Amino acid sequence: MWCQPRSLATAVGAAPVRPRGTVRPRGPHESGAPDRAGGGRRWCHYAAAGVLAGLVRGQRPGHRARTGAVVSSMAAQDMGILLIEHLNLNVSSTEIAVEFYEALGCCRDERRPLTKTLHSNCGALTQFHTPSPENEAYIADAGPQRWRGTIHVAYDSPAMLEAAAQRLRTLQAEERFASTDLTLGEWQEDLQELSVLGPYGNRFLLHVAPAKLDALGPRCGARPGSEKSRCLGMDALTLEVPVGTAKKAALFYKEVLGCAVRDVDGCADGCAVLAGPGLAQELRFQEVEGCSGKEVGEHMAIYVNDFEGCFQRLLERGLVWVNPRFVHLDKSTTLEEALHYSCFRFKDVVDETGSKLFELEHEVRSTSHKSWPLAGA
Ligand SMILES: [Fe+2]
User: Which domains, from first to last, does the chain contain?
Assistant: First the structure.
């Protein structure tokens, strides 16, 4: 079965957003709700989730358990990805990035001067990191980067999403954004979602969150300085991958990172979505004809509970990798070094034979990392 997505181009420049809060919100986590902003032909969706599920049990000593319904929804597993925390995407101008992400509903981490890489809090727990040549000489000639897929941002209500859309339209009308890619698509009333092309060509899907996104905070905790954020967070990422690799990739995340994976209704013939318990976030693999699977220098930061186990399994497969760009932050090649930095990296996703499926730089952190957003929760 071929699940035909609507291209962003067909949605752009159409009717204004008209959310009406009476329609039941329906998020992309729900069965049969395809990612509308993707551009592929053949869809194979697998999601590696895990996400927040282990935040309570099995944590390092000293972490306080959270209480109430959030605990019960997050305690489903000890393994897997605790949090997809940030995307790191180069931009050409910090000023443009600040304005765009704030219009989106994020708030700048004001503890960091703008001479350093911009961190925009997207909800209580997730972030966008947008280095520019203005503050990082290493990328002086690199140019902006695009996430190879779709970035899903959740909002608390149709009104909050509508407000974001209005802010983005205001930016769109400003001269300094005229030469950027910033474009808004057509509001999808039935799905409660809106496609947005960011100023540097990143594809965003803004949507009204299902109630289960309570797990993204702030009830379960929040990063200091994120209180002004007007969105709930980055709740899903769709990554375009080569045909035939989605299911194998899901198995990689299951075996190496301990993620829960599952099929999702709506696709057949190998097209499916895997998701894990909690369902607060998803990493989806969307198979696209002709996709090379090569990284473009972007990275995704994740927190894992079984930090040592993940490191060892990746080391055994020869996948631990040091990014020369970030050796001032971490350069882990041994477990001792990984524990020292509370961080290591890998970028090759492989099948069971060790053959590379595609690339995606993962910045893997433990909950001992200084930036763990729930350290004080
Ligand atoms: Fe990072």
Answer: 8-365 (3.10.180.10)
